[in-house]
Amino acid sequence: MGVGPIEIFVLNVESRVLHQLTDDRSFNVRPSWSGDGRWIYYCSNKSGTRQIWKIPVEGGNARQLTKGGGFEAVEVPGGKILWYTRAWTAKPGLWRVSVDGGEEVPVLDSVPSSYWAMTDNGIYYVDFSAVPEGAPKPLKFFSFEKREVAQVATIEKVQFTDEAGFSASRDGRWVSWRQLDRSESNIMLIDNFR
């Protein structure tokens, strides 16, 4: 069973008015706000492949920003660059592009979709690339200023899924993630049913 079309809505909390932004019967997912609150970035397959788009919050036409694939996008503080991941493509990892579109530049090849978060000073991510399944995973930090990656911690129980479950505070002091501590099932028997 596949996921059907997903549309994006904005709720004005003061007026309690719900406004539908997308209406293209596409797979529109993983929205994020622009720093100035005027745009929403999101992944859509309305062009035939999953790409990053932006749409004005007040409504209007959406604009495609990537052509080589895109899944999750976050605007860098300052509002000129968009960082994004490419899921399910030949060249995954973390990429960047202007908020107006243009050249798509690879940044890091080991950043997975759903397990990265932007802060004011850089990006935290879980590196699943060189670690066996079930082993602790390194938590890494890419510094915007130094353009370097450093391991900052190890996460004992984290499993890779395509569902969102990782975030960091803007100041970079806190990182949170979703983790499965225990999974159980039971074997059941129906006795004397004949």
What does this molecule look like?
By secondary structure, the chain is an all-beta fold. The chain has two domains: 1-109, TolB, C-terminal domain (Neuraminidase), CATH 2.120.10.30; 114-180, no CATH class. The protein has no helices and 16 strands. The strands form five sheets. It has a four-stranded antiparallel β-sheet, with no helix packed on it. A four-stranded antiparallel β-sheet has the order 7-8-9-10, with no helix packed on it. The protein has a four-stranded antiparallel β-sheet with strand order 11-12-13-14, with no helix packed on it. It is globular and about 65 Å long. The protein starts with 8 loop residues before the first strand and ends in a 17-residue tail after the last strand.
